[in-house]
Amino acid sequence: MSVEKDMKRKANPVFQDAVKDAAAPGDSVKVITPKEQVEGILMPSPHKDIVMIKLNTGYNLGFEKKDVKEIQLVEREVLKQKTSLLMSKDEKLPTIVVLHTGGTIASKVDYTTGAVTAKFTAEDLLEKFPKIGKITNVHTELISNLMSEDIRFSDYQTIARAVKKYALEGVSGKKVKGIIIGHGTDTLSYTAAALSFMFERINLPVILVGSQRSPDRGSTDAALNLTCAAKFIAETDFVGVAVCMHHSSNDDDCAILPATKVRKMHTSRRDSFKAINSTAIALVKPVGIEYLWKDYPKGTTGKGLGSKEAVILRDKFEEKVGWLKVHPNMDPELFRFFTSHYRAIMIEGTGLGHAPTNLGEKNLQNYAYLQSFLAKGGIVAITSQCLFGRVHPSVYTNLRRLSEIGSIYCEDMLPETAYIKLSWLLGNYSPEEAKKMMVQNLRGEISEQSAYTDDFLKE
Amino acid sequence: MSVEKDMKRKANPVFQDAVKDAAAPGDSVKVITPKEQVEGILMPSPHKDIVMIKLNTGYNLGFEKKDVKEIQLVEREVLKQKTSLLMSKDEKLPTIVVLHTGGTIASKVDYTTGAVTAKFTAEDLLEKFPKIGKITNVHTELISNLMSEDIRFSDYQTIARAVKKYALEGVSGKKVKGIIIGHGTDTLSYTAAALSFMFERINLPVILVGSQRSPDRGSTDAALNLTCAAKFIAETDFVGVAVCMHHSSNDDDCAILPATKVRKMHTSRRDSFKAINSTAIALVKPVGIEYLWKDYPKGTTGKGLGSKEAVILRDKFEEKVGWLKVHPNMDPELFRFFTSHYRAIMIEGTGLGHAPTNLGEKNLQNYAYLQSFLAKGGIVAITSQCLFGRVHPSVYTNLRRLSEIGSIYCEDMLPETAYIKLSWLLGNYSPEEAKKMMVQNLRGEISEQSAYTDDFLKE
């Protein structure tokens, strides 16, 4: 399985020296220490000094690398066989695919260290939540096993290509009604935005689901989030990318949140994911789905299984895009680094989209760096660290100076979304096209007008 | 006036070549162009190509520098004379000081460009809001005329020294009951945190006030914010630094917000300032002050006017502190720059305080840079871009890796506050002391335990 080989070669170099080419993650192995011999499936380890295997009981077991004498290969790619089963047998139920990328939603307490580590198989997940099998036929595939803070653009490509495969080919000749992507919560909203841009056309709902508490804990939110996502997919005519997470701190309903307007707003609560400058698309409640958006993207292409036009995927990203966070006392050396090292810079400005570039010797140096960067064809896109509201280039005289030299103002786009969009645009379009498209609303990332409500935090 | 001379020499180098030593901001001048001769007070200009004067009508007038033949000095320091008046004559009213730093609260529409520019005098401000003169004797002083995105650590020192002067010396032999600092909203919360740390002891309330709409506009929030701040100062026994801004989108009450737990959460709304992981200290309502905190810092030192022990100010800052924003696909070159250029780094991590430092070749390089930085005595302080909630080093195995190498976890401190605190600590204490104090609650920046509420955005 190429993903696993890739992980072995690149993502987790520990295996190169630990087991050489003898065994790769997903293989069944026997770990031999001076004290014991234990069989299990070799896992990617979260720590370079640990060799991790999954036991038949489902638990992961870690060994200190220095204690391991030998790792014997028992059988190749055992994990792949285990995870590719169609788990429900009811032909009438819609078929969904759960793609697994890692994160808390697939984690349990690691009894060797006491901390939470990622579990490996999507099968594990569904064994834990049999309810999903009662509303859908479920096919699962392992994509990666990363904590989400480590996800890179290359992982977006891996996920998107798997989505495309299932969207076009189905599973065992059956059309797939929708895809759940199990994902760590830290960067879940970034991935949601990335997939949203990457799929210029998609023919099914792609729902990212995370959990804030490990499924092994009583307080886990994984069950509700996954079940609501499956239920939503089974019943909805929505197509496109969205996020499904707890709507409130009560464990009774979930929100389907817009992929380009969602943000993790709390480190630990179950209801951490909030729509910013927008609302949830829908709520999935015990009684059914309540749509909050009158117009949401629906499946109108009419292109079914096997039709290549049903999906258009543009999956390249420009790596040389910097994220410049504005704060007091900014250092011209920082501006020098950003303007010499990157092709484009997303500035997370203050207020309406400001940066310290106006008065004072150092601030004027900052401005000079941006000016010369823009003059040489660099791209500067401006958002606000306020998160809520809209940037505006022409309210203040000072601010116009950034606009005058060619900075782009990203309206009410989140900094997270603007960074992803800019990287994606420059990967797939010319700089001139990218600059134009940056301020066009492609996937709901820009609202025409912001609704004025009594309490913007609760919009 | 040394501040103005400073501005002339450093903050606004345009005046060096435009008018040489002939006139400085605050002086009365005559601007001579081929077409006209106009008298007014020379203003710091927001743009290097513009010479700005304030006319007797109160309006600012800008001239393109290339059109200006000569600037004749009429009278020195006219502005200082104008702004240092005690404006109310009622001896019984408490005396407050309004220090002016610039920003929208002191701005009006600039009819030369159509945009909003900063007005210069605090007197202008109080002429506009006579209500304040009915509840307090008001003394005003001009500190600077910066849009707040340009404020640097040196400006914090200027503000703090003025606060200290009035706190210790009063005005014309009268004790000052409290100080209002008019400030641009963009970085108002950063300045609030900075002043909070700088004053280890203070004997009066120091209230930062901004406005989101220019006082020239019908929808301005300046009147209510300033009036509420004056009313709060007149009636309260609170001492310390806080922020006074609109409590809701209704124009009827203001919130007194904790200086180290407040953030601008919307680009343009009047109720943009919100307490994060905390609540407002008090609400200033038409009927009076409602305290939401049972315990708030009160004036207990008993050290009055003239007693030097009434105020302890530590006003140094370390400039070599970097703010590293975590996002997907981070570049080892960025980590290399931060770890080679700064003495300390505040990481605005994802989720519970994560950074891409675990799996994958580039992420492992990122980790190696941090590891070697810490080994050489660098300081790494970790917060979360979620803003709400608390970072935690020991939930995830991956995360422990950052903790193991000596990173500091800043509990539920805001990234903004952590950046300011770290810079301030390293300016005034040894690295070892700074590391210890970083996780101690000095000014309310760390909550012992977060209260669990139904809706964290509305805590």
Describe this structure in words.
The first copy, chain A, has helices spanning 2-11, 14-19, 78-83, 122-128, 131-135, 153-169, 188-198, 222-235, 332-341, 361-375, 397-404, 415-428, 431-438; strands at 28-32, 37-43, 50-54, 60-64, 70-75, 95-100, 107-109, 116-118, 137-142, 176-182, 199-201, 205-209, 240-246, 254-258, 262-264, 273-275, 282-285, 288-291, 312-313, 321-325, 344-349, 379-384, 408-409. The longest helix of chain A is centred in the middle third of the chain and has 17 residues, at 153-169. The first copy, chain A, is of the alpha/beta class. The first copy, chain A, contains 13 helices and 23 strands. Chain A starts with a helix and ends in a 21-residue tail after the last helix. Chain A has an eight-stranded mixed β-sheet, sandwiched between helices. In chain A, strands 4-3-2-1-5 form a five-stranded antiparallel β-sheet. In chain A, strands 20-21-22-23 form a four-stranded parallel β-sheet, with helices on both faces. In chain A, 29% of the residues lie in helices and 24% in strands. In chain A, strand 15 (262-264) and strand 16 form a beta hairpin. Chain A has three domains: 2-78, SH3 type barrels (Roll); 84-313, L-asparaginase, N-terminal domain (Rossmann fold), CATH 3.40.50.1170; 321-438, 3-Layer(aba) Sandwich (Rossmann fold). The interface between A and B is large, with 94 and 96 residues.
